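Journal club prep — side note

Before the paper discussion, L.F. wants everyone to see what a predicted structure for a comparable chain looks like in token form. Sequence:
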Amino acid sequence: MDMTNNKSIILAISTLLCLFSPIAGQSVVPAKQDGFWYGGNTAAAEKVLIEAFFDPVCPDSRDSWPPLKKALRHYGATVTLVLHTFPLP
């Protein structure tokens, strides 16, 4: 009976620790500017600002980079890109 009681207490404590421990698996978007301006262009009122969040090891981020560069070349001076390196889920 004593061993069963100890197991129940340990299980309850473990469950509470898991429920109330902070979860650090998901990152949040930073509050301050952390990206870099692609191509040296800065934002202006007459430009469209695109902010892209890329994970350096994500295959989807890798595959979306060439079409994004193509769009930047096509729209030229009317578009500005800010690129953020960000670990995606």
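L.F.'s comment for the group: Residues 27-85 form one domain. Keep this in mind when we get to the figures.
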